[in-house]
């Protein structure tokens, strides 16, 4: 039986803490325990290049950037993404279970608000790099609600809150 696959994306940024958290032996063991046997990492402009090949029973491969990652989203059974709006919505619109990982080192970071809103609405799980292993270990995808593509209400409300100028 072929195992499940994970697509990890940092978008066009760098988020080495997320990539390091994913390839941590404990996280890989947790993924393998959940039935995942392949992890594809899109590492953007990060300085850290993860090891490729078999680790903890999980096959790792990586790339930096390419014109479209739509095929990577489509092929994934689970998406682990930085909590950027574009990547989160692409995963949800592709109908993929999502773990949104917040980069809490960013200044004026609105990722936490988006990740919390999506998680509170039941569309994804969210965590930080340092809690990814625990989040994967407790992952129960049956708790997620399907995201209805073409209904951008959630993002629109979020953006209204974030960019509202003292009206």
UniProtKB/TrEMBL annotation:
The keyword Ion transport does not apply. The keyword Glycosyltransferase applies. Its EC number is 2.4.1.141. Keywords: Endoplasmic reticulum, Glycosyltransferase, Transferase. Pfam families: Glyco_tran_28_C. Residues 6-148 form the Glycosyl transferase family 28 C-terminal domain. GO terms for cellular component: endoplasmic reticulum. GO terms for molecular function: N-acetylglucosaminyldiphosphodolichol N-acetylglucosaminyltransferase activity. InterPro entries: Alg13-like, Glyco_trans_28_C. Belongs to the glycosyltransferase 28 family. This is UDP-N-acetylglucosamine transferase subunit ALG13.
